[in-house]
Write a structure and sequence with these properties.
Two copies of one chain form a homodimer. Chain A is of the alpha/beta class and about 400 residues long. Chain A is built from 15 helices and 19 strands. In chain A, strands 6-17-16-15-14 form a five-stranded parallel β-sheet. In chain A, strands 7-8-12-13 form a four-stranded parallel β-sheet. In chain A, strands 3-4-5 form a three-stranded antiparallel β-sheet. In chain A, α8 links the parallel β14 and β15. At the A-B interface, α3, α4, α12, α13 and α14 of A face α3, α4, α12, α13 and α14 of B.
Chain lengths: ~400, ~400
C-alpha cells in the first residue's frame, strides 16, 4: 500500500512498504530527526522495506544469516529493524546468480525489513589473500578456494544491486592502523575517486527488484585530522542520503576513536544519518550516540556471545565462570526479552561448558536483544531530553564485570 | 490444579499438572489405549508433567538440551510432548549437585512437560573408557576427563532421582552385536538381577521433587529367540507401568530388528506402553508402530539433520546436493510447521555449504517437526482404523531419495 507523505524540504514522496507480491513505487531513503539532546539525535529512516528508528544497532548477518539466530527470533526476540549483509562473503557464497534467481537477499533469507550491505572493502583487505590494489580496483584471491577475483567500484555496485540491500556502501580502501600520513592520504584520495565511480555506476544502472537502493559514502583519512576533515568535506559535497565513518575502531586508542568521531560529526551534514562502522561495545555506543552517531554495526554481540561473553543491563558476564554454576537467576533480570528472562545463568554456563549449540544461540539472541534494548532506551531518553543523565548512569553499570 | 480422574481399573487417582509453585499430589504413570488398528495402538500416557499421546517420538536432549533447538521451538514448532535426557552425560555435566540445587532437570532447562532419562547403560558401554563390569556395577572412566566412576543399579536410580525425570530407565548391560549365546545369556541374567535391585532401590527412596518418577525395565537377550522370550517374561512379571525393548538397532539386519520387536510385543503386556529404544528412521517408526510399539527415541532426526540429511513428507533430501542450489521451494511443502514452510531448500543448502549454525538449527527443527507430525498422523489413522493403508502409502514416499 502506497501513500504520499510530505517528509521534508527535499520532495513529496511515496512511502511504500515492500510486499512480496505487491511491489509498489520506489522512494529514496529519507531521514527525519524527531528530537535532539545535546549532540544526540532521535530520528527515523524511511526505506522501501520499512522504517528504522534511530539511534539503531544493526545485527551482522554476514553471509545471509545472523549467526545462530533465526529470522523469527530476530524479529520477535531481538526486535531487529535492519540487518547487515556482507558483499565479499555473499559474492563468494551463495553468489549473485543464486541471489538474482531468488529475487534478492530479502527473499532468499526471508527478511522483509531493511538490509544494509557493507561493500566488502574491509574483507578484501583483511581476509583475502594476495591482494593487489590498482586504480581499477583490487585483485584478490578468495579465502575459501583461492580463486581470483577483481573488485572495482563498478563491480561492487553491480554485486550490491544483485544482493538487493536497501542501503549499499561505497567501495573504499581501508588502510591499516597505523598508517603514515603519505599512505593514508593516497589511500583516501583513491577512495574518493572510487566513490565518484560508485555514484556514476549506480546512476547508470537500475534498481533490480522494484525498490530503491541507496548509496552511503564512507569517510576515511586514518587518524590524521587534516585528512579526516578533507574526507568529510568531500563526502559531504556528494549530498548522499546518508554518510558513514569508516576506518575507526581498528586498533587505535579509544579516546582517539571518540575524538575522530566527534570531528567527523562536526563536519558531516546534520540532516543526514551518520553511520559509524564496526562499533562497538555498549559503552562505545552510548558515547558515540552522544557525539551524533545514528547507526552502528558490530560483530561483538554475536561473536563475543558465542564465546561466552554476555552484555547485560547489570554488567558484563563471562558465563563460563564457576561463580555462575548454581546461580539460577535469569540471564538478565533487567532485560524485557523472553529468552533472557526464561533461561538461567547456571543453565547457560552448563551449555557453554558442555559445548552445546543452544548456548551459542541463546547468547547471541540475548546480546542482540540487549543491544537493541540499549539503543531503544537511548532513543527514549533523547526524546525526553534526559540522554546525558541516562548515559552517565548507565556507563559504570554496563562496564562492570560481574 | 488437581482433579480426581477415574482412569481405569487400577485406581482412582489424582491427575495433576505440575506447576512451578504449586506441586500437587503425585500419581503413578497410567496408560490408556483409545483405539487399535491391527497391532497398532493409539493411546495416552498420563504423567505428573502432563499427558503424552501415543504413538510418540521423543527428541533426544542428551545433556539437558535438544541440540540446536530452544525449548520454545520444541514446544511451538516441533510440538514435542516428552523429551529424553541421558543419565551418563547429565551425571558428568552439570552433575547431580547442580541439578538438585536447581530443583531437577525440568526446572534447570525450563521444560515443564514430561522427561524420560535413559539410565546411561548404553553410554557406559559405548563411550566410557576402561570399563570393568562386575556384579556390583560398572567401573568406568569419564570420556571427558578420565575420572573414575562406579555405576550400579542403586547409584543410577539415585542419580535419576536427582535428575527428576518422570520416566526413568533400568540400569542394564548392553551386549555388543553380535554376541554369542553364552555371553548374551550371562549378560541378560545380570541385567535381570540388576533390574530387581533397581526396583528395590526405587522403593526405598522418595521422589525428590514432589511428583512421581516411574521405572521402565528393559528387555535384552540379543538376537536369540529363547533369550528374548525369557527376558520379556521376566520383565513382564515385574508388572511395571511401562516396558522397554533395548539392544536392538545395534547393527543387526533390519528384518531381524522387526522380527524381534514383533516377538517382544507378543509377550510384553498389552495394557502397558511399549518403548523401543534407539529407533529409528521414519519408515522404521511406521513398521514398528504396526508391530505394537508406542514410544520411540532416536538421535537420527537431530544428528542426521546437523549433517544435512532432511526427512520430509516427500522423501529424503541431502541438502548439500547441488540440485537444490536454486530450488526456492519450501523445505517441505507437506509439513505444517512454520520453519519448514518459511525457509527454502536453496537457502538451507547455502547455510550448510557456508557452515552456518542456522543450518544446523533449522535442519534439527524441521526433522523433529517431521517426526512428530509422522507419529501424529499414524495416531490419527489408528483412531480411524486406516493405519495399514496409511503405512503402505507412506513407506515408498518417505524412503525415496529426492
Amino acid at each position: 500500500m502506497a501513500k504520499i507523505a510530505d517528509i521534508g524540504p527535499d520532495s513529496v514522496r511515496f512511502v511504500c512498504m515492500w510486499k512480496k507480491d505487491d511491489i509498489c513505487k520506489m522512494a529514496v531513503l529519507a531521514f527525519n530527526i524527531e528530537s535532539e539532546s545535546g549532540k544526540a539525535r532521535a530520528g527515523n529512516i524511511q526505506t522501501d522495506h520499512g522504517t528504522i528508528q534511530t539511534p539503531i544497532f544493526m545485527p551482522v548477518g554476514t553471509v545471509g544469516s545472523v549467526k545462530a539466530v533465526t529470522q523469527q527470533q530476530l524479529k520477535l526476540d531481538v526486535q531487529a529493524q535492519i540487518i547487515l549483509g556482507n558483499t565479499y562473503h555473499l559474492y563468494l557464497r551463495p553468489g549473485t546468480e543464486v541471489l538474482e534467481a531468488a529475487g534478492g537477499l530479502h527473499q532468499f533469507m526471508g527478511w522483509d525489513r531493511p538490509i544494509l550491505t557493507d561493500s566488502g572493502g574491509y574483507q578484501v583487505f583483511s581476509l583475502a589473500a594476495n591482494r593487489k590494489i590498482k586504480e581499477e580496483g583490487v585483485i584478490f584471491q578468495s579465502h575459501i578456494d583461492g580463486s581470483k577475483h577483481l573488485f572495482s567500484p563498478e563491480s561492487v555496485m553491480d554485486i550490491q544491486r544483485s544482493i538487493g540491500a536497501d542501503i549499499i556502501m561505497a567501495f573504499d580502501e581501508c588502510p591499516p592502523y597505523p598508517s603514515d600520513h603519505n599512505y593514508a592520504k593516497k589511500s583516501m584520495e583513491l577512495t574518493h575517486r572510487w566513490l565518484t565511480r560508485c555514484f556514476d555506476r549506480l546512476a547508470e544502472t537500475p534498481d533490480k527488484y522494484g525498490y530503491t537502493q541507496n548509496l552511503f559514502p564512507i569517510v576515511q583519512g586514518s587518524t590524521f585530522k587534516d585528512l579526516r576533515t578533507a574526507s568529510c568535506e568531500f563526502i559531504a559535497s556528494k549530498n548522499a542520503v546518508g554518510n558513514a565513518i569508516g576506518g575507526l575502531s581498528v586498533g587505535e586508542p579509544i579516546e582517539m576513536m571518540y575524538e575522530f568521531t566527534d570531528l567527523c560529526c562536526s563536519i558531516l551534514p546534520a540532516n543526514k544519518p551518520r553511520y559509524l562502522m564496526g562499533v562497538g561495545t555498549p559503552w562505545n555506543l552510548l558515547e558515540c550516540i552522544d557525539l551524533g552517531i545514528d547507526m552502528f554495526d558490530c560483530v561483538m554481540p554475536t561473536r563475543n556471545g558465542r564465546n561466552g561473553m554476555l552484555f547485560t543491563t547489570q554488567g558484563v558476564i563471562n558465563i563460563r565462570n564457576k561463580k555462575w554454576e548454581k546461580d539460577f537467576s535469569p540471564i538478565d533480570i533487567g532485560l524485557p526479552s523472553e529468552p533472557s528472562q526464561y533461561y538461567s545463568k547456571a543453565y547457560m554456563r552448563h551449555l557453554f561448558v558442555a559445548g552445546e549449540i543452544l548456548g551459542l544461540q541463546l547468547a547471541s539472541i540475548h546480546n542482540l536483544s540487549f543491544y537493541l534494548w540499549l539503543v531503544g532506551e537511548a532513543r527514549k531518553h533523547i526524546l525526553q531530553n534526559t540522554f546525558t543523565a541516562f548515559k552517565q548512569q548507565m556507563l559504570p553499570i554496563l562496564q562492570q564485570r560481574l
